[in-house]
Amino acid sequence: MSVAGFGAKAAVAVVLLVAGGAKLADLHGFAAAIGLFLPGRWPRLARAGLPFAAAVIAAGELLIGAVSLCWPALGWVNVAVLALACGFIAVAAVGYARRGGQACSCFGALTRREFGPRALVQALLIGGAAWLAARPARPAQLQIGVSAHLLLLAGAAIMALAAYTAAGALAGGRTAPRMAG
Amino acid sequence: MRIPVYLVIAQWALLLGLGCLVVVMYRQLGRLLSQPDDSAALGPPVGSKAGQFRYERVPAGATGLVTPGDGQAMLIAFVDPTCPACEQLVTSLGDLQAAGRLPETRILLLMSDPPGYLRVSAAFQATSLEIGRPVNAQEMTQYRAEATPLLVAVDGAGVVRSAGVASSPGEVRAMAAALTGLRMTSESEVAL
Q1: pLDDT exceeds cutoff 70 at A93
Q2: Is A102 part of a structural domain of the chain?
Q3: Which 8-state DSSP code applies to residue A179?
Q4: Label partner for B168 (CA 20 to 30 A): which of A146, A160, B36, B107?
Q5: Are B120 and B81 spatial neighbours (Cβ–Cβ below 8 Å)?
Q6: Chain A residues in contact with B21 (beta carbon < 8 A)
Q7: A179 falls within a domain
Q8: How far is the first Cα of chain A from the last one, in angstroms, to the nearest whole number?
Q9: What is the mean pLDDT of chain A?
Q10: Residue A7 falls inside a structural domain
């Protein structure tokens, strides 16, 4: 893996941390975005489980992003990141085809991105970076010490917390008028 | 001491990520703060022609078409089951209709939440009013439904007579009066 590969790996991990943290701060909005992909006559029980599914997906993004960033030598994480990125591409493509113009909540309330060509390009870029990061590397290149693991873990936590706080503040600012009257 | 290349790159990625986060936050906050008065910007301008739009009936799923100007006055309520004030609006509209205070006026509740969210609101489950979800977001841009609850009154000629936030019976009466003012007598106002 080259320097570009390392960069891609770290960048995708950071994107996952931001996306996961921001989604956790606006679970209702993300659950609504997931609901767009369910058929109209989906069982009520499944609908009621949307917030739980949203929380699981957001937490999964956070976990995979943190492990990918802090334990770079773990090969299976690259596969997990690539699978997640493929999921993003599939969702963006289907959303563009069927739900164009509707909010995707890809980064919670941080952005107002909707399903469309820009969201699809964004997903493809993440997929490309994940593919680049999944290419084999010499283990020695990715060996870091315990202190480095802890340092990166602290950085990942700060990043996720910052995204969570920012998205939470923005979500609150947007939803406040909804309660007007 | 030699610092691993990956560690340097990862630190830079974190730093750049935080920087991007700050920029995004700053831009979004700027947008939020630059809206001088959300309530004033809500809804289509009074006097403008209301646009035609399609909607999906909830929970039936069939597609309907709203064509303002077909001779029938309309009250279009933008509401969501997850919004407490919207439940009050739904109840107010239902009461008004049940009392016969909105004769010859079609009432349509438009929600953006997924249909499954109906179950979280007793008011939505109990109402007999027509509920739908817009099919195409583009068709709805003219209505500027940036927040809920929003009520838009459209007369039979398709002209917007009033639009704004409403939830209490008094607010709904005031907005409905823009449509029914000529028909509504002072007695009926007292009765309401």
Answers
A1: yes
A2: yes
A3: G
A4: B36
A5: yes
A6: 18, 110, 159, 162-163, 166
A7: no
A8: 58
A9: 84
A10: yes
Contact residues, chain A, for B56 at CB < 8 Å: 40
- Rounded to 5°, angle at Cα A115 from A127 and A97: 90
Contact A177 B114 (CB under 8 A): no
- Structural domain span for residue A111: 3-172
Domain ranges of chain B: 1-34, 38-191
Q: How far is A76 from chain B (nearest CA, A)?
A: 18
Whether residue A181 lies inside any domain: the answer is no
Strand ranges in B62-180 using DSSP code E only, listed in sequence order = 63-66, 73-78, 105-110, 130-134, 150-154, 160-165
Q: Which CATH superfamily is domain B38-191 in?
A: Glutaredoxin (3.40.30.10)
Q: Whole-model pTM?
A: 0.58
Based on the structure, what is the number of domains in chain A?
1
Question: Each residue of B127-172: pLDDT tens digit?
Answer: 889 999 998 888 888 888 888 888 999 988 888 888 888 877 788 8
Assigned token pair, A81: 């990141």
CB contact under 8 A, B28 and A17: no
State whether the Cα torsion A134-A140-A146-A148 is positive or negative: negative
Among A89, A131, A119, A144, residue whose Cα is nearest residue A4? A131
